[in-house]
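> @MW can you paste both from yesterday?
MW: sure, first one:
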Amino acid sequence: MKKFILAVGLLSLVGTAFADNGKNCEELKAEIAAKLDAKGISGYSLEIVDKGNASGGKIVGTCEKGSKEIVYKR
């Protein structure tokens, strides 16, 4: 059940994050982190990478007009 709630939370974050591709990456990363923290999720990292370089994590947002991605790792 805990994994299901985490998956639903991440999917809702993805929808929010993809809605505004023109955002500043650091600003978007801070917003995603605040949402994760508010849900009580801990032990994660968010990393800003160039598009296509998201190895070993889940893409939870894009920024700088789609040229960068924010990757969630547990």
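MW: second:
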Amino acid sequence: MYALHDHVLMKKPHACGVNDWEIIRVGMDIKIRCTGCGHIVMMPRHDFDRKMKKVLTKHQDQ
């Protein structure tokens, strides 16, 4: 699945042209940050599950 600080690919690109997002909050709502311009979007988990295409990179815990 996905976890905090994973990079995910969304179905539609952001207005800046980047399709790569970082998950910065996980709960009832998911908060993601665009890796291109830094814009933050918060959406319900149901909407996020529909709009996410795949996980690009998993966050490595140290």
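> thanks! Residues 7-57 form one domain.
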